[in-house]
Amino acid sequence: MTIRSSEIRVLCSRVPDYPNTAITVQGWVHGIRRMGGLAFVDVRDRSGVVQCVLEGELAETPLSLESVIAVEGVAVLAPKAPRGVEIRAAGIAVLSEAEAPLPFELNKKTLSAKLETMLDHRTLSLRHPKTHATFRIQSALAGAFRDYLSGQGFTQIFTPKIVASGTEGGSNLFGVDYFERKAYLAQSPQFYKQMMVGAGYERVFEIAPVYRAEEHNTSRHLNEYVSLDVEVGFIRSEEELMDLEQRLLAYMFERAAVGCGEELALLGVEVPSIVDIPRMTVAEAQAILRRKYGKTSPKGDLDPEGERLLCKHVAEGSKPALVFLTRYLKEIRPMYAMPAPEDESLTASFDLLFNGLEITTGGQRIHDYAMLTASMRSRGLDPDRFAGYMDVFRYGMPPHGGFAIGLERLTSRLLGLPNVREASAFPRDRTRLTP
Q1: Over residues 276-301, mean pLDDT
Q2: pTM of structure
Q3: Which part of the chain has CATH 3.30.930.10?
Q4: 33 has binding-site annotation
Q5: 214 among the known binding-site residues?
Q6: pLDDT at residue 168 greater than cutoff 80
C-alpha cells in the first residue's frame, strides 16, 4: 500500500479528533477478530489503541499479532468501539511481520507470564500498555525532579562513572580494567557532587546510573540503578534537606498525577498528596515496633520487615506511608556523615521510607578538613588516597548536605509493583546481564 500525501499519520489517541476524515494510523497489531467477512484489527501505538474495520479482500490480509502495520481509512463514530470511534479501512500495509506464536500474550489486561520470562523477552513485555504506563510515569517523575530543582537555582551536573576508588571505601565495587591500572564503576556521585558544591556551584543535582556489587538477589535490589542525587551548600542542619525533599516529592507526585492521569488510571494507582512527612529517630521507630508489633530490630537500624511495619504504622488513617528516619549510628553511616550535635555516636543523617521500602538516604556532611581527615582515619582509610576529593575541604568548604533517591524504588513504591525489576527497562541484577 502506498500512503497518499493527502493523508496524515494520526496517533491512535487522536483519531476521535478527525471524524469523517481520511487518515493513516501506524503501529502494532494488538488484536485480531474475524467474523462474517469482516476483520476487526486493533492497532496500538505509543498513545493507545484504536479499532480498524477491514472488509472484503482487506479482511483476508494475513496478519500476526505484534506485526507493524499502516492502515489508511476514514475515521467514523462507533459508540461500541474503544474511544467511540473506529477506522473504516481503505488500505493496509504490513511494514514488519512478527513471528508467531509470541512468547506470551500481550493483548490481555495484565501480563500473566513469569517475571523472568518477561525480562528474557524484555523488548516484547515493554510493549504492554501497563508496562508502557509504568515508564511514562517514571519519565514524568524524573522530568519533574529536574524541573523543580532547576527552578530552585540548582545546576545539573554530569560526573564520572569510572573512578579510582570507592566512594565510601567499601568492597561493593565492580572492578574494570583501565589500561594499565585498576578502576571501578562508581557506587555514587557523592564525592563529585560535594566537590561541585565546594567549587562554587552551591546547589547541584544529577540523574545518572550508579553501580553496587552487592550479592543480594531480592525484589528490593538492583546492581545498576538510576540515582536522583541532590547536594546543597550553606545549610544549617539536615532538617533543611528533609524540608527540600518533602517539597520536591510533592511537586514530582503532583506533576505525575496531572500529566499521567490515563496511565495512573490504567494501573489503578492514586498518587498520594504530600503535606507533612513525619520524622522520627531510629530509636523512636524501634520503640514503636517493639511496643506495637513485638518486633526487635538490628542495632541502630531497621530490617526490611521493620520498614514495612513502620510504614504500616504511619499510614493508618488516610496518611501516605512515608516517614523520615533520623539519627543513625555513626558506625553504620559513611565516613563523611556529620556527627549529631547532641551525641557524636549518632549522625545528622536520614532515610526516607515509602510504602515499606527505603527510597532515600541523605544527611549533612562533614565540611571541616581536620574532622573529615580524622573520620577517615578512624575507619582505616588513608586520606592521601582521596587527595582529589580532600582538596576542596583544604581550600574552603561550606556547610552542606544532600540526598539521593533511587528512581526505580520510587517508581515501584508509587505504583505498587512487587519487584523493583519491573521499574527498570533493562534490569541488571545478580544474575542478569541481558538483554
Answers
A1: 96
A2: 0.94
A3: 123-423
A4: no
A5: yes
A6: no
Kindly report the three-state secondary structure assignment for every residue of the chain: CCCCCCCEECCHHHHHHCCCCEEEEEEEEEEEEEECCEEEEEEEECCEEEEEEEEHHHHHCCCCCCCEEEEEEEEEECCCCHHHEEEEEEEEEEEECCCCCCCCCCCCCCCCCCHHHHHHCHHHHCCCHHHHHHHHHHHHHHHHHHHHHHHCCCEECCCCCEECCCCCCCCCCCEEEECCEEEEECCCCHHHHHHHHHHHHCEEEEEEEEECCCCCCCCCCCCEEEEEEEEEECCCCHHHHHHHHHHHHHHHHHHHHHHCHHHHHHHCCCCCCCCCCCEEEHHHHHHHHHHHHCCCCCCCCCCHHHHHHHHHHHCCCCCCCEEEEECCEHHHCCCCECEECCEEEEECEEEEEECCEEEEEEEEECCCHHHHHHHHHHCCCCHHHHHHHHHHHHCCCCCEEEEEEEHHHHHHHHHCCCCHHHHCCCCECCCCCCC
- Is 409 marked as binding a ligand? yes
Residue 308 assigned as binding residue: no
57 assigned ligand-binding residue: no
For domain 8-96, the CATH architecture is Beta Barrel (2.40)
Is 222 part of any known ligand binding site? yes
Q: What is the pLDDT of residues 205-233, one digit of tens each?
A: 999 999 999 888 888 999 999 999 999 99
Does the annotation list 206 as a binding residue?
Answer: no
Cite the residue boundaries of each domain of the chain with CATH code 2.40.50.140.
Answer: 8-96
Residue 169 has a pLDDT of: 56
Q: Domain 123-423, what fold?
A: BirA Bifunctional Protein; domain 2 (3.30.930)
Is 136 annotated to bind a ligand? Reply is no
| Residue that wins the pLDDT comparison between 170 and 87 | 87
